[in-house]
From TrEMBL:
The lineage of its organism: Eukaryota, Fungi, Dikarya, Ascomycota, Pezizomycotina. Pfam families: Gln-synt_C. Keywords: Ligase. This is Glutamine synthetase. Residues 128-474 form the GS catalytic domain. It comes from the Eukaryota. Belongs to the glutamine synthetase family. SMART domains: Gln-synt_C (SM01230). PANTHER family: GAMMA-GLUTAMYLPUTRESCINE SYNTHETASE (PTHR43785), TYPE-1 GLUTAMINE SYNTHETASE 2 (PTHR43785:SF12). Signal peptide: none annotated.
Length: 474
């Protein structure tokens, strides 16, 4: 069980340190932070401190949004937000050495922060950690706790920021060739990097449950250890931080793009979710098999689980931009690559958007949903917020499952999900959308505006494909 940190215990922990690293999460799931002195940290740890709001006013390449949005704009002078330190997020960065104390502790102290409106004191609508916290609060009001797991696939290229700039992202060198999923021999070729990630994640309190090569040249997959949903979102975000940091030490660029290479499988970011009561009992598990279920796939799923599933299915089209947030995301969501493209579900069905995992293939206490639509490029806080919020809505409204499960050889299902980012944004922004209902207009307007910015840049871009196809022949 994770220890509870207090200001007193943290002050004692930092007695031999002179610096602290802090970071918050932006709309794209990117960590934005700074190094401060311990003296400064101790002076603001209770009150909070100012942090420039522009991190919610620009994109992942620090380009301000073409349309100024609510949080950070010229009208408010790109004011500071109030950043508050989460003491429970404390860990040490094992690959960044600090002063070593008498008990031989090592690594720069690290804390996550969340962002608040300096006037109201409330979390700003797009703050990823704040959004998830507000959804989790709804679950706890019922005496429930949400549990989650995350799986990430990612390519690894033998490239550096400089080489990527020089070759403009073309002709990338994979760290290993060929398709060799679950290989025992391929990791040996980069074993310091491979084992370094596993061991460093453990030290950084981002424990990996399963770690292997995936089908694709130089592709790895990690299953993070199952845990409480807010802790899992933190760990999912920090997992990328570990991987990218260690990659830089070996001149390797890990790539979490949804679809880095044409003709190869994409990078998924599957999320697992379940609810438990105050005694840890799985609320999705049925105590006794249903003798007359609507569908055979539901025989071991509780009524709460069925309503949760119905909420997910009804909400899925409206929350797609949270699961697939980039232009590239939709290159992964195509037929024939085990990537779901419709509103669909099924017992142990990997072609469905939502895979039900329950007896007889899993124990009752492991009953859960695997949401397979998100890519590795998605913000884990938004993804888990969307899954939990739409599921809780289904329970609250006692929704019925709207479509039958996929059959054993089916890959279809219900409504076709958005084919591109703008389709998804339009669906999300519809009046009375599920996204507006569960997250509110302020969040939807801000997030959708950031995605409109992404789409506008794409529409204005001239791609290599266009040049190669048309430069001579038209």
């Amino acid at each position: 069980m994770t220890a509870t940190h207090t200001l007193e215990s943290i002050t004692a922990e930092l007695r031999s340190d002179d610096k602290v690293k802090l970071a918050g999460v932006d709309v794209d799931g990117v960590l934005r932070g700074k190094l401060i002195s311990k003296k400064k940290f101790l002076s603001v740890v209770e009150s909070g401190f100012g942090f420039c709001s522009v991190i919610f006013g620009w994109d992942m390449h620090d380009r301000t949004y073409f349309r100024e949005l609510l949080i950070s704009n010229a009208a408010n002078g790109y004011r500071d937000l109030l950043a508050k330190v989460d003491l429970q997020s404390f860990r040490r960065i094992p690959w960044e050495n600090s002063r070593v104390g008498q008990d031989d502790r090592e690594g720069v102290p690290f804390f996550l922060i969340s962002f608040y409106d300096p006037n109201s004191g409330e979390p700003i609508p797009p703050c990823p950690r704040g959004l998830l916290g507000s959804v989790v609060k709804k679950a706890t009001e019922n005496g429930w706790k949400a549990m989650a797991g995350a799986e990430y696939e990612f390519f690894n290229f033998r490239e550096t920021p400089k080489s990527l700039g020089d070759n403009k992202g073309a002709d990338l060198e994979h760290i290993t060739p060929g398709m060799f999923g679950y290989s025992l021999s391929r990791p040996v070729q980069n074993q310091e990097f491979y084992y370094g990630i596993f061991d460093t994640c453990k030290k950084f309190n981002v424990p990996i449950e399963g770690w292997h090569t995936e089908s694709g040249p130089g592709v790895y997959e990690a299953a993070l250890e199952f845990g409480e949903v807010t802790m899992m979102a933190d760990r999912a975000c920090l997992f990328k931080y570990v991987v990218k940091s260690l990659g830089s030490k070996y001149d390797i660029t890990p790539c979490f793009m949804a679809k880095p290479k044409e003709g190869l499988p994409g990078n998924s970011g599957h999320m697992h979710i379940s609810l438990v009561d105050e005694n840890g009992r799985n609320l999705f598990a049925r105590s006794t098999p249903d003798p007359n279920p609507l569908y055979p796939d539901l025989v071991h799923l509780s009524d709460i689980g069925r309503h949760f599933l119905a909420g997910l299915l009804e909400g899925l089209p409206s929350i797609m931009p949270l699961f697939a947030p980039t232009v590239n995301s939709y290159k992964r969501l195509v037929e024939n690559f085990w990537a779901p493209v419709t509103v669909s579900w099924g017992l142990e069905h990997r072609a469905a958007s939502i895979r039900l995992i329950s007896p007889p293939t899993a124990s009752a206490k492991s009953t859960r949903f695997e949401v397979r639509t998100p890519g590795a490029d998605a913000n884990p806080f938004y993804v888990l917020s969307a899954i939990l919020a739409t599921g809780l809505r289904g329970i609250e409204k006692k929704l019925d499952i709207p479509i039958p499960p996929l059959g054993s050889e089916e890959t279809g299902g219900g409504e076709r999900l958005a084919r591109n980012l703008m389709e998804g944004v339009v669906k999300m922004m519809e009046k009375g959308s599920v996204a507006r209902e569960v997250f509110g207009d302020a969040f939807v307007e801000h997030f959708a505006g950031t995605r409109e910015h992404e789409w506008k840049l794409w529409e204005e871009a001239v791609t290599d494909w266009e040049v190669k196809r048309y430069i001579e022949t038209v």
